[in-house]
Amino acid sequence: MRVFVTGATGFIGSAVVRELLSAGHEVVGLARSDEGAASIAAAGAAVHRGSLQDTGSLRSGAATADGVVHTAYIHDFSPTGDPVAAAQVDGRAIEALGEALAGSGRPLTVASGLVATPGRLATEEDDAPDNPMHPRVSEPAALRFAERGVRVSVVRLAPSVHGEGDYAFIPAVIGIARAKGLSAYVGDGSNRWAAVHRLDAAHLFRLALETAPAGARLHAVGDEGVPFRDIAEVIGRHLDVPVTGVSRDEAQAHFGSFANFVSADMPASSVLTQKEMGWHPAQPGLIADLDEGHYFTNEPARHV
After folding, report:
1. Cα→Cα distances 215→94, 142, 144, 146, 155, Å
2. Can you list the positions of beta strands (E) in the chain?
3. What is the tens place of the pLDDT at every residue in 61-71?
4. Helix (H/G/I), strand (E/B), else coil: 193
5. Is the model's pTM score more than 0.85?
6. Gyration radius (Cα) of the chain, Å
7. By three-state DSSP, how is residue 31 classified?
């Protein structure tokens, strides 16, 4: 299968590219820069120049493919980041990809986020949330094409997608602990994070592309819920700094823009996904991955 992959140089997308190539697929990766193009070519994939904002390049890339995996997203966690604008770009990108595949029966597999349901495990049967402050339109934008002759599937990624090269939430929390000289959790730290290793997630993307039925909602979840206190304790041990709880009132001063995220309770199940797709996470869990030490010695990879 000739597969067009957006986000092909990213943390998850680059793992998807390698997973697809190892399974014998031909891969064409979207690149917005010379550096990105070189990275894709080095992995053994063909290069398609363009960007998420260039919907023409997305349509042309999808039109000549047997299937599409969409992992690209504009993640900007800085104070000036605009999640509403990022969601709008993503929605237009999915629309362009879907239109190129409409009526063909070809697969489109789209990355999305988990539905947070504090107090219980989120499941594949939960509907996508409506959060106007932090919208994620990926899922509804994609699933509309299931009725237009596209074999659409959505892979909901756990809040923590971990592994070597991670540049997102865990490295940010480690950076805060290093700067403050303290590894903290909020309250008693019993709030839970679902997690998945990037290689397990990449495997699920491939399975979804190959066999998922139209309209499938899948959960890329290895650890159903890791208590945040356990994460803080591993970080404290590796950095040799104290570990302690902070109150919700103190959390903003300690964690800054990550305060709400580190205090959120986000457990999730992948039981239905594992049963329906024959997918079984095989890589180290989050705590074991942290204990391998690479999070504390390596510079995180960046998008190119």
Report:
1. 15, 9, 9, 6, 11
2. 2-6, 26-31, 46-49, 67-70, 107-113, 151-157, 160-162, 183-186, 192-197, 216-220, 223-227, 243-246
3. 999 999 999 99
4. strand
5. yes
6. 19
7. strand
